[in-house]
UniProtKB/TrEMBL annotation:
Top-level taxon of the source organism: Bacteria
Keywords per UniProt: Aminopeptidase, Hydrolase, Protease, Signal
Residues in the signal sequence: 1-31
InterPro entries: Peptidase_M4/M1_CTD_sf, Peptidase_M61_catalytic
Record's protein name: M61 glycyl aminopeptidase
Length: 530
């Protein structure tokens, strides 16, 4: 999945990343213990410099990350006092701000005191923040130090944003532990690691680079990446293969190296299929095995994703990895998002990704046509039996991360909506255009066109212009208001046709719905190239 985050309504923006490596340190910087971040050779104006030091307990398990930062720059216009913030809750991960200990800040005048206040919580577990407001005027640079404890075992399931110990190391998202300036003009951030708390052969990697990295843009961008440190294994052993690499902690039931080689081939295929990013962005996969719940699952951030899972079950030993998850999470890089209220836009970011994640493994020759049929029928069943099938998008957001079945309704609905839209675009254009032609134009405009606002109003105008036939009104009724969707018979191509069926459920009896059966007279080659 791709998380709906605090800034979900922003347009996608390109983030330029420059990795700075120290020689002789296996790609990772080592700072003197207790030393503040050294001044960068880059301009000191608008710079946040951070040292991250994982802390292990007596048993060798990482219990926290110590953060030591120096903030240079100036308050944003109109700001009266320095404000720092971190999530209290972030996409179902609770207590992040409560795990921040010994937060201290100082400037040339000495210690800075803060007053803390929390935003109103969101009932669906979506992000809300704690803000620390300085009680006096500050002078830059400001030094900020604190310890962020790891997310404890237990608690609700959800995306793996929290920092968790794993196989002697630690990993998680920046949103799971970083306290950042909210109202300071930061042009770039420089992050390095102090790995002195580990044994030999420890390394560190992030979405933004390995070892030391520089992230261009506002400091909040540091939250939108994965962080991993410890006895990391990687594919390939050095560098990347076609811009792809992977990093993991723990022993998985599948052959991690072989599965990551497969994922690299899938990434190359996706780059060629979507083609609007050329060359394809540098991409990193992160995987961790945690011993206690919540285990996490797969979640994409920027040019990367994290697979977080629990101990292997006996039947998993020696099996292939979760390749459907690999495909789904990598597809997020190209699908991106649409602007709109937090959580309401999942029909697009998750629905279109789910549609492509069913279709493209078959189109690319990674899976059989019959497997594609299994995937689309699993989607159809999940949608028609979902107890929230006819809920509005806003009602689903109110439940949010408290109920996984309800939260995934937009994934299923979105996938069926886009399959139906593909068939309607083909019909309206007499076969000259497809959904992918339509989406490719939008992707290119979103990436390159200054001033292009891609929100629900834009979507309705675009889809109405493409197929007419009340398409905008249908979007409102089905996607936003919860009317049941019945895709046309050839929504999944000529190789499958719609049939009425009844689905057995454990607690609600039989539920009427639809399935798609294979048309045996049509060869696989037509299915793959339709």
């Amino acid at each position: 999945m791709s998380a709906d985050v605090r800034c979900a309504a922003r347009r996608l923006r390109a983030i330029m990343i420059a990795a700075a490596f120290l020689t002789g340190a296996a790609g990772c910087a080592t700072a003197r213990k207790g030393a503040p971040p050294r001044p960068s050779q880059e301009t000191a104006a608008g710079m946040l410099e951070i040292v991250l030091r994982p802390v292990r307990d007596a048993a060798g398990v990482v219990s926290a990350i110590d953060v030591d930062a120096v903030l240079r720059g100036a308050l944003q216009p109109g700001a009266e006092a320095l404000v720092l913030d971190t999530p209290v809750v972030y996409a179902g991960v609770y207590g992040i701000a409560d795990r921040v200990e010994d937060l201290r800040a100082s400037d040339a005048k000495g210690a800075i005191s803060f007053a803390a206040a929390d935003e109103e919580p969101h009932p669906g577990g979506f992000p809300h923040y704690r803000r620390w407001t300085a009680q006096r005027a500050v002078t830059f640079p400001v030094r900020i130090r604190y310890r962020s404890r790891v997310q404890p075992a237990g608690g609700p399931g959800g995306p793996p944003f929290g920092i968790r110990p794993s196989a002697g190391g630690v990993s998680g998202a920046g949103s799971g532990f970083l306290v950042l300036p909210e109202n300071v003009e930061v042009a770039k951030s420089r992050v390095r690691w102090d790995l002195s708390g580990f044994e030999k052969n420890a390394s560190a990697a992030t979405t933004f680079g390995e070892g030391v990295f520089i992230l261009e843009g506002p400091a909040d961008g540091l939250r939108q990446g994965w962080y991993m440190a410890g006895p990391i294994e990687r594919y390939p052993d050095k560098g990347d293969v076609g811009g792809f690499s992977a990093h993991w902690l723990g022993a998985f039931p599948f052959d991690a190296r072989a599965e990551m080689a497969w994922a690299g081939e899938a990434y190359d295929y996706l780059a060629k299929f979507f083609r609007y990013l050329d060359p394809a962005p540098r991409y990193r996969v992160f995987m961790r095995l945690v011993e206690t719940p919540p285990y996490g699952g797969g979640t994409a951030l920027g040019d990367s994703f994290m697979l977080s899972r629990g101990p292997a079950r006996p039947e998993e030993i020696g099996a292939e990895g979760p390749r459907d998850v690999f495909f789904h999470e990598m597809i997020h890089r190209w699908v991106g998002g649409i602007e709109g209220p937090q959580g309401v836009t999942s029909w697009f970011s998750e629905g279109l990704t789910t549609y492509y994640a069913a279709l493209l493994p078959m189109r690319g020759g990674f899976e059989s046509v019959d497997k594609y049929g299994e995937r689309i029928n699993a989607l159809a069943r999940a949608y028609y039996v979902n107890p929230a099938r006819n809920w509005t998008a806003h009602e689903i957001v109110e439940v949010g991360f408290r109920d996984g079945t309800i939260r995934h309704r937009p994934y299923q609905l979105g996938a069926l909506y886009f399959a139906d839209l593909d068939a309607r675009i083909r019909a309206a254009s007499s076969g000259a255009r497809t959904l992918h032609d339509f989406m490719h134009e939008i992707f290119v405009r979103r990436e390159t066109e200054e001033g292009f606002v891609f929100d629900h109003a834009a979507w309705k105008a675009l889809v109405e212009a493409e197929i007419g036939d009340g398409a905008a009104a249908a979007f409102e009724r089905i996607v936003l208001s919860g009317e049941t969707i019945i895709p046309v018979s050839n929504a999944f191509g000529p190789c499958f046709e719609r049939r009425e069926t009844r689905f057995e459920t454990e607690d609600r009896g039989e539920i009427a719905g639809y399935e798609w059966r294979r048309v045996e007279t049509i060869p696989d080659s037509i299915c793959r190239n339709y």
